[in-house]
């Protein structure tokens, strides 16, 4: 915390907040809880919790949120100290605005008190269990749509299903207790950037249930809704600057403050078994088919993000705004957006060229400091849906896969764990050890590195890995990046795009 906030009061109530800050337009204490949310990181606080705040103001209802953190205890202690209140900073080119959000009623640290979380999930008042726990937390094998029995968040729950600690185990056990007590199930709402997120979590929950209690699997199959969602709001990790700006604008010290961009989008499959808040009040779109939105967002926004993350990080560009401000890398991003859009089926009411132009503007937001290194995290969990599956779709249509190969080769360079000035960095990938082992054997030889990473089990879709065009293109680009260095390689690629 900055020293100048030392004498300030903490943000514990809605009084004493400086003028000009938007306050909740409802009385928080008048509303009971209806949602348990797993994963109360910055993204949840900048996205779903804000839509819920809008819904409470518009239509009321008992829809406040019990927030749970599965691992960290810090955010839970901070939110509880602040009665769940926190500041949302929206940063745009025109300046920063502040709003206090009150939709979180209380928070639970599952690592400290696992029983409290289970009790909340079984509470009949809870009608939705939503989650943002990141791609790697589920332990579902996406190819087989089954749980991975060896995954650290699945293995313990298979052995002790009554005392779960993983997301899928918690869902299955709390649903079992609800069924046994005659309590209607809640709706499971996954808000992570996974393809067909609702269907995938449903498949994982059914598979785990089958292994521990086959009757329960039948009940879940028949009774529980798992709507799919597409979530979007660029939200960098909070920093000291976030906290200092929140304090300056609100006049209160707030360690749970988050900062985000003005843009926000939430597309939700309208399939809720026990009601839902009026999230449309915050602009949520309800539809019967989320997939086209999800493909657009994962392939265009997240795919370009990953390209900028690996290429930008190794080119010494700290933030996404720096990456998009450098014309050669911007040229690669623009090409990527066009190629990614060409893999999509048409979406009524959306012009992909307009969407791409809006993305470039969002990436360039000068007020958002989104680190390329933050986005580079967990590549093996992100690349399949962002880069590899659209690459395969494009290849099958006879398209040019070079842009996808470029992003993949940039990731491969990143996997070497050392930047071009020789400095080592942590990969921050759940398969970090496996990656390090694979590249260690490959030495500095592009074909060997590309081969080893391409052949990591359950990563590159088989039909793509088997394509000589794909393998050769990735290998050639990686060789070029290693030989020239990232910046000159990006410049050469931009010149090639220009010439084509
Ligand atoms: C980013 C996303 O960190 C990442 O991998 O690509 O978190 C991205 O900022 C969000 O999906 C935007 O909605």
Quick summary of this structure?
The protein is an alpha/beta fold and 500 residues long.
Describe it for me?
The chain is α/β, with parallel strands linked by helices. The chain has helices spanning 42-46, 48-59, 74-81, 114-122, 155-159, 167-180, 197-212, 214-223, 240-250, 291-314, 320-325, 327-342, 352-364, 372-376, 379-396, 402-414, 432-442, 446-454, 462-465, 468-484, 486-499, and strands at residues 33-38, 64-69, 86-92, 95-101, 104-109, 128-131, 140-141, 146-147, 187-190, 229-232, 258-260, 265-269, 285-287. Strands 5-2-1-6-9 form a 5-stranded parallel β-sheet, with helices on both faces. Strands 4-3-11 form a 3-stranded mixed β-sheet, with helices on both faces. It has a 3-stranded mixed β-sheet with strand order 10-12-13, with helices on one face. Helix 15 (379-396) runs antiparallel to helix 16.
In CATH, the topology of the largest domain is named: Rossmann fold
Number of domains: 2
Strand order of the largest sheet: 5-2-1-6-9
Q: Could you tell me the strand content as a percent range?
A: 5-15%
Largest sheet: 5 strands, parallel
Mean pLDDT: 97
Ligands bound here? D-mannonic acid
Features:
single chain, 500 residues, alpha/beta, Rossmann fold, N-(1-d-carboxylethyl)-l-norvaline Dehydrogenase, domain 2, 2 domains, three-stranded mixed β-sheet, 21 helices, 13 strands, 12% strand, binds D-mannonic acid
Topology summary:
Elements: E1 33-38, H1 42-46, H2 48-59, E2 64-69, H3 74-81, E3 86-92, E4 95-101, E5 104-109, H4 114-122, E6 128-131, E7 140-141, E8 146-147, H5 155-159, H6 167-180, E9 187-190, H7 197-212, H8 214-223, E10 229-232, H9 240-250, E11 258-260, E12 265-269, E13 285-287, H10 291-314, H11 320-325, H12 327-342, H13 352-364, H14 372-376, H15 379-396, H16 402-414, H17 432-442, H18 446-454, H19 462-465, H20 468-484, H21 486-499
Parallel strand pairs: 1-2, 1-6, 2-5, 3-11, 6-9, 12-13
Antiparallel strand pairs: 3-4, 7-8, 10-12
Helix pairs in contact: 4-6, 6-7, 7-8, 10-12, 10-15, 10-16, 12-13, 12-21, 15-16, 16-20, 17-18, 18-20, 20-21
The structure holds D-mannonic acid.
